[in-house]
Write a structure and sequence with these properties.
Elements lengths: L1 H15 L2 H8 L3 H15 L4 E3 L4 E3 L1 H27 L5 E7 L1 H8 L3 H7 L3 E7 L13 E5 L8 E8 L1 E5 L1 H7 L14 E3 L7 E3 L5 E3 L4 E3 L2 H9 L5 E4 H10 L3 E3 L8 E7 L1 H4 L2 H17 L5
Parallel strand pairs: 3-4, 3-5, 8-11
Antiparallel strand pairs: 1-2, 5-14, 6-14, 7-12, 7-13, 9-10
Helix pairs in contact: 1-2, 1-3, 1-4, 2-3
C-alpha cells in the first residue's frame, strides 16, 4: 500500500510541477513529499526528478515511469468503479444482437420475468440482418447466433442446433421428392441471404453442393412464407421448423442426410461482462436454457 501511496505522490508532484504545491494538495508537508519521492527513487535505483532551487523536471527515465504510473492508477480507479457497480442494482440500456429464431423462441418468452427481476434495465434487441452487424461497436452482447463473434470478443458455445431441408407438400407433388443431395440441383432453392455461404448446402456424409438460388430473401418469415406457397425448398432451423413439420404445412426432405448440428454462440467483450446489466442477463438466460432444454438436437 505504501508503494501505491508513493506512486500517487509522484504523479501529483509531476502534475503540480512543484513539491510545495503537491504537498498542499495532499495535505502533507513539503518535507514528507520529498521523503516519499526519495524513497521511491531509492527503491527503483534511478533518478525520477531533476530538482533545482528554481525548477522541477522529469528525467528521461522519470518521464517513462510517469506514463506507466498514470496507467496503473487509472486501472486501479477503473477497478474501484467496477467493484462499486457490482454492489448496485443493474441498470441502463443493454444492446443485444440475436438471430430471429433464438429471439422468438428463447429471449422474448422470458422477458416479462426478466424485466420484473431487473426493472432498471432497458433492452435494445437487434435481430441480425447481415453478417456485418457483428462488427457494430454499440453491441454489448451477442446471444444465440451461429456466426463467429468478432475476434476481440469472448465466444462461448451455449448449445447446438440443426437445420432441416423443408418444402411444402404442394411443391413436392409438383416437382417430386429428392432422394439424394445431388437431386437438389434439379430443384428450386430459396435461400436466406444473411447466412454465410447461403448458396452452399452441407450434409452428414461430408459432401457439399453449391446451388444457384431461385430466390434470395433477407427475412426468415418471408422465406418460410415463400416455401409455404410452394415456390421452392428452404433450409430452416429446427426451432422454426418444428411447428410447420408437426402441422404438416412443411415436410422435411433428405432427413437421413441432414447436415451436422451447428454451434450456437454467446459472445461478449470482457470489459463489458463486468457490468452488472450484461452479467445478469447472461446468467438469467443461461439458467432458462438449462431448464427449458430449448436446444435438443
Amino acid at each position: 500500500m505504501r508503494k501505491l501511496e508513493h506512486l500517487e505522490t509522484f504523479i501529483k508532484v509531476v502534475e503540480a510541477n512543484s513539491l510545495a504545491l503537491a504537498a498542499k494538495r495532499l495535505g502533507l508537508s513539503a518535507a514528507a513529499i520529498s521523503k516519499q519521492i526519495s524513497a521511491l527513487e531509492n527503491e527503483l535505483k534511478m533518478s525520477l526528478l531533476s530538482r533545482t532551487t528554481r525548477r522541477l523536471e522529469l528525467t528521461e527515465l522519470g518521464r517513462v515511469y510517469y506514463e506507466h504510473c498514470k496507467g496503473v492508477m487509472k486501472k486501479i480507479d477503473d477497478l474501484d468503479g467496477v467493484m462499486n457497480s457490482l454492489q448496485q442494482e443493474p441498470s441502463g440500456k443493454l444492446t443485444v444482437l440475436s438471430s430471429r429464431y433464438f429471439a422468438d423462441h428463447c429471449i422474448v418468452p422470458h422477458l416479462q420475468e426478466f424485466f420484473a427481476k431487473y426493472p432498471k434495465i432497458t433492452l435494445d434487441l437487434i435481430i441480425i440482418s447481415r453478417a456485418s452487424d457483428l462488427s457494430r461497436e454499440d453491441i454489448d452482447l451477442f446471444f444465440g447466433i451461429t456466426h463467429a463473434v468478432p475476434p476481440e470478443a469472448t465466444q462461448q458455445e451455449i448449445a447446438k442446433g440443426h437445420f432441416s431441408l423443408c418444402a411444402s407438400p404442394s411443391y413436392l407433388k409438383q416437382y417430386g421428392i429428392p432422394k439424394t443431395p445431388q437431386d437438389l440441383s434439379h430443384h428450386r432453392f430459396i435461400t436466406y441471404s444473411v447466412r454465410q455461404s447461403c448458396h452452399r448446402l452441407s450434409f452428414n456424409n461430408g459432401s457439399e453442393i453449391y446451388l444457384n438460388p431461385l430466390l434470395r430473401v433477407s427475412d426468415t418469415k418471408m422465406m418460410i412464407s415463400c416455401a409455404l406457397q410452394g415456390l421452392g425448398f428452404i433450409t430452416l432451423h429446427h426451432l422454426e421448423s418444428e411447428k410447420h413439420l408437426s402441422g404438416g404445412t412443411l415436410v422435411e426432405i433428405l432427413a437421413k442426410f441432414r447436415e451436422p448440428p451447428q454451434p450456437i454462440y454467446l459472445g461478449y467483450f470482457q470489459d463489458r461482462y463486468l457490468q452488472p446489466k450484461v452479467r445478469y442477463f447472461i446468467e438469467f438466460y443461461q439458467e432458462k436454457l438449462k431448464k427449458t432444454g430449448a436446444y435438443a438436437t
